[in-house]
Design goal:
heterodimer, A: alpha/beta, Hypothetical Protein Ychn, Chain: A, five-stranded parallel sheet, 6 helices, globular, B: mainly alpha, two-stranded antiparallel ribbon, 48% helix
Chain lengths: 160, 105
Amino acid sequence: MENNGNGQPIEKVSIIVSHGSLEGVYPGLIMANGARMAGIEANLFFTFFGMDAIINKRMDKLKVATVGNPAMHMPTVLGSIPGMSAFATSMMKKEMEKIDIPPVREFLTMIHDAGCNIYACKASVDMFHLTKSDFCDEVDEIISVGQFYEVSAGANIIFT
Amino acid sequence: MAAREILGKMLEFDNDNHLKNRDDWNEEVAVELAKEEGVLELTDRHWLVINFMRKEYMEKGDAPSIRKLTKESGVETKELYALFPKGPAKKAAKVAGLPKPTGCI
């Protein structure tokens, strides 16, 4: 489908990832990668619990939320059974692998190699007492919200 | 859909401006299509990508994902983006005479 002629094609996006569950992280990654694939300039900004996706010790262990997620179609008492989140996570990972969606770490490398800049939010970093060394190598910089708006000049901002 | 002349022959293109008939494609046509995309010279590495995409398309009916392309062709992500700036998936498919890839990854 081509642009229907109403409005300019998108040339740049800034994508904010604010959730740390598996289903909270992937949409932002898929959109960032998709942007680069289409030749759209992209920046990824991780804030609050979204930072789990770029913290070395945590990024390989993201889980699907089975509680407080009505779209799981699972009663809260079932979702809270130990192991349920791990089970749902492994099911989802299997399905993702089938359609060639990489694990978070590999995906971040791919996105970064594709030319997307990756940033962590300064306020969140300070709040959680983190330093640059807690993050994976793909993280370019820890930036403030002001700097985020600077790098987002001319971009569409997408909050996930 | 539109037809336009490439190397003296009228060729048909789909709505995405990709070549419509696979049989119209050959290496000379690919060189011309690449020029239209701003890729002025097709190196061996470009051909590796183009031929891999064509092979995948012929076998599976769709162009490969970037991940599959990089893993199986041996051309890494960075290089792929350098070979086909401004969107490797679509550009490479276009030069390879294939429809726009339908996958998201």
